[in-house]
């Protein structure tokens, strides 16, 4: 869900609670309609005024915006307002800028009634405000230039629904399991969830479970005590779990983790504790776990290669990221997106010819978005022309278009239908075999069982 700033302000104005926004200096930048009524002031009288001055004048006591700026943390206090006998419950929240500093402080106030004093009602208010703060973070992310290479690009209804799902997941603190093929963007979704969550001010630490040697994984993740083993640093080492404290730990390729290490991850998720190597006492961990895999974990569970209890602990919230070939309508936008990025990076102004763009859109992208981004960068670096032609594309992409170029001339030949269809089928199977590394992958790309593919390979003499 995307909104303009004006839409968010209209929503805040429609709520029967007070909202007050200041910048990092305490200067009022916006006040809701209800806040103006509470303070008996117009927007014009408040916008541009500093909350320090307004507090000294006795308009409210204390200024929650001031307290948040001084303490640099979210707070909730009881506030009195000039001319009112009743008290107000006011909560202040920080919205950060791209460097992690304070950009805005937004406060939410409601008069204290007997109903509000209940835990349920207070939690409801907090939930509503958290949603507004998340929307402000979402708008902020869109404006951050450094996020340009990690945007979620897609216009299809299914992909938009996936983004909405990620935004809902960000509101909770439960474990998340992201599934999908290599290069489909699981790490981008993990980062997006983190940046919209309450942990956005903490670190986002990514760990590739398949890239760290098994013998080093435990020490890298949990750290070790001074002199814990031969060759250990004399100062000991802080693990990545500790580095992620207060933030998110993203365990990529979790399906590659050996069984004996899965027990330790289970303990981390279940009890929020871990034991550094050489330590005697457990350490507590305040981290959210997001895991990702390109493998079928349920199949691994059935084969006793992955713990069932860990799978269910990870799978509290799950998202399946679709392969790029399942969202072909987004390929054009992604190509343009990466063209813009690399034109800016290499100080060029290159474009694609219609033939080159058609070939790129027709390709099935077995490596998904990662392959697309790398391909666009490669052709932009290697091309000497401002307009990139089809002949300059990688051979694999040019070969993938031979099928479509073959069908048209073949249809004009005086071939019997059965012979013509056999030729088309042969070219199609050959094309998929060239795209894939294994027959299983080729069968998946072709949308047929592997046994059927093997029969067709035999039929057309493509065994070699």
From TrEMBL:
Domain PAS: 4-54
Biological process, per Gene Ontology: regulation of DNA-templated transcription
Record keywords: Aromatic hydrocarbons catabolism, ATP-binding, DNA-binding, Nucleotide-binding, Transcription, Transcription regulation
Protein name per UniProt: HTH-type transcriptional regulatory protein TyrR
Limits of the Sigma-54 factor interaction domain: 152-381
Protein's UniProt keywords contain Ubl conjugation: no
Nucleotide-binding as UniProt keyword: yes
UniProt xrefs under PANTHER family: ACETOIN DEHYDROGENASE OPERON TRANSCRIPTIONAL ACTIVATOR ACOR (PTHR32071:SF101), TRANSCRIPTIONAL REGULATORY PROTEIN (PTHR32071)
Single Gene Ontology MF annotation: DNA binding
Pfam families attached to this UniProt entry: AAA_lid_14 (PF25601), HTH_50 (PF18024), PAS (PF00989), Sigma54_activat (PF00158)
